[in-house]
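Box 3.1 A note on notation
Throughout this textbook, protein chains are presented in two layers. The first layer is the amino acid sequence; the second is a token string describing backbone geometry. Keep the layers aligned when reading.
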Amino acid sequence: MARSHFLPDQLAQAVVGADPDAALRHLAWLRDELGDRFIGGAVLHTGPRAFVVDTDIVAAPIAGLWS
């Protein structure tokens, strides 16, 4: 099972989260905890289109990584 990986605070001022397990609540929690340092999160899925699911969090097709 894939897990999300985030840079420790001391390595980056801005953090991007990617969660392949589609755990939106975890990305929303991370966004709320990091405040302005959170610049965006993505949930990868097998569907054909990208869409916004919450503030600063999008769902995007995993196939887009290779196109």
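Helices lie at 24-34. The two ends are 24 Å apart (CA to CA).
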